[in-house]
Write a structure and sequence with these properties.
- This is FT-interacting protein 1-like.
- By secondary structure, the chain is mainly β.
- It has three domains: 142 residues, C2 domain (Immunoglobulin-like, Sandwich), CATH 2.60.40.150; 136 residues, Immunoglobulin-like (Sandwich); 124 residues, Sandwich (Immunoglobulin-like), CATH 2.60.40.150.
- It contains no helices and 30 strands.
- The strands form eight sheets. Strands 12, 25, 26, 28, 29 and 30 form a six-stranded antiparallel β-sheet that branches. It has a five-stranded mixed β-sheet with strand order 9-10-3-6-11, with no helix packed on it.
- A hairpin with a 6-residue loop joins strand 7 and strand 8.
- The two termini are 53 Å apart.
Amino acid sequence: MQRPPLRPVEDYSLKETAPHLGGGGAAGDKLTTTYDLVEQMQYLYVRVVKAKDLPAKDVTGSCDPYVEVKLGNYKGTTRHFEKKTNPEWNQVFAFSKDRIQASTVEVLVKDKDLVKDDFIGRVSFDLNEVPKRVPPDSPLAPQWYRLEDRKGDKVKGELMLAVWMGTQADEAFPDAWHSDAATVPSDGLANIRSKVYLTPKLWYVRVNVIEAQDLIPSDKGRFPEVFVKVMLGNQVLRTRISQVRGPNPMWNEDLMFVAAEPFEEHLVLSVEDRVGPNKDELLGKTIIPLQNVDRRLDYKAVNTRWYNLEKHVVIMEGDKKKELKFSSRIHLRICLDGGYHVLDESTHYSSDLRPTAKQLWKQSIGVLELGVLTAQGLLPMKTKDGRGTTDAYCVAKYGQKWVRTRTIIDSFTPKWNEQYTWEVYDPCTVITIGVFDNCHLQGGEKAGGTRDTPNRKSSYQTFNPRNR
């Protein structure tokens, strides 16, 4: 019997690469220093600012203008305005130089119509004459251009434009319409752009439940079994049942919660009596806004306070209902503890060890720079047009800052070439990196999903910032 062939062993070891990084490339008489950890990617940028004195095309004497930018097989359009001869768009289009298959770029102004859009005028540029811009040079100032008809004759109307060759280091890059994502509908563009996220600062909320006084159970013929339930958002904790069976129970028990700035939540404390299996009676309740809670930054304990426990009882007096409101009291010590770091990561992969209170932070010891270059050998994560595909983006997390690269559409070897930085406060920390498939785009079988999937062949890698 013939044995099946052995599957090749996957190699997940680190491999050294030698990409052509931007730090060594020259542009004119100066060196490019921005994005020096990644390869420079060339783009043709077209910024469409505004137009003026556009002629009326409709029988009503109005104009519904929009702009169409054409370069070879790629076409990008601005939004249109209704009945406006002096529109302002201020939109940027980016065309990857690697995919340019034309020698000129055309910018056409059209009038939107129900049947067929009317041509108003155009401006064209020879790509060989487009200027280059390298940051930190200032952005190229837009200029007014007179519109021409299809024969090249001047017509009424002017268009303000700026056209230049740049790189992914350009300020216009994150917000530009990319020809690489031409198949993505306009409402999906927000899901493919690169983004930087800052996680909210987390605080420990310490609730020391000490005692209660003057509780009034409904059944005065039995000793109450009293406990305290504390809720903060979807976090719920309970004390043990007090060993002091009476109207003045004691606990002296600590409960710990986690809250995030800004403090918009409330602590809800209820004192309850266990009157039977799975049956509790409310004896009193108090609500404490987190904004009113003291902050502790050192070892000194905060002062205790008494809080009123309110309970509303409805009684019948003849045919009328009467609501009685009376208060017991509960003794608490509550504080927002900023002297410790809130553990929200695995201790083996922690990226931030600082206490919550910013006053206790030490100065940073350096800057971590990360260049996200490319990925290879990604697996198909969904089916589109009868074939496997993946729309990959990369996520990196360090400290309170998350970054997400732009999504590269339909590629198993995506090239991002994006660069990010973090401040480092402790060398014994790690940065976590992962590659995900974007399932929020049109055409995927999971387009209606809410959570993107890690690519099965990608892996999370950690690096000590000291060994940059």
